[in-house]
Amino acid sequence: MKKGDKALMIDELKEKFANNPFFYITDSSSLTVAAINKFRRICFEKGIEVQVVKNTLVKKAMEPTAEEKNYVAIYDALHGPTTLLFCETANLPAKVIKEFRKSSDRPFIKGAYIDSGVYLGDDQIDALANLKSKEELVGEIIGLLQSPAKNVISALKSGGNTIAGLVKALEERAN
Questions:
Q1: Which fold has domain 3-131?
Q2: Rounded to an integer, what distance in angstroms lies between the CA atom of residue 128 and that of residue 112?
Q3: Per-residue pLDDT tens digits for 119-158
Q4: Global pTM?
C-alpha cells in the first residue's frame, strides 16, 4: 500500500470512528471465500459495514481522540487479522455473528466499542447480543409510563358503567 493510500485510509477510518459510536473488531481470517462472502452479504442486508484493515492504520486513525473516547482500552484487541464491523445499532453485529457461528466457528469477536464502553474477548458475545438498542429502551420506557395511565383510564371506564347503572336504577325507583 502506498503512503498516499494509507493517508486516505486513515482519514476514512477517522471519519468512521467519529460518526459511529459502535464498532466491533473481529477475526474472520480462517473463513473460506464462500463463507466470508456469505457473512458479508448477511451484514450488508442488515446494514452492517464490513472492512478488513491493518491494525497500524486503525491505531493511527484512533490516535487523535484515543484518550477522550477511551480507544486506548481497545488497543489490546488490535493484533492479528482484523475485520471492523460498523453499525448504528450496538447489539446487531453480535447477533449476526452469533447466528452465523451456528454454521461456522468464525468470525470471533476480539473487541467491541459501545459508546465509550469496551468489551474485550469472544466470551462477551452473549452480553453484547443482549444489549438493548436505543429504540428498545425508548419503547420500554414509554410502555412503563403508559401503564399507570392505562390502569387509571380502565378503572374509570369500568366504574363509569357501574355509576351510570346506579344513577339509572335510583332514577327508576324515584319514578
A1: Alpha-Beta Plaits (3.30.70)
A2: 8
A3: 998 888 888 888 887 777 888 888 878 777 676 666 656 6
A4: 0.75
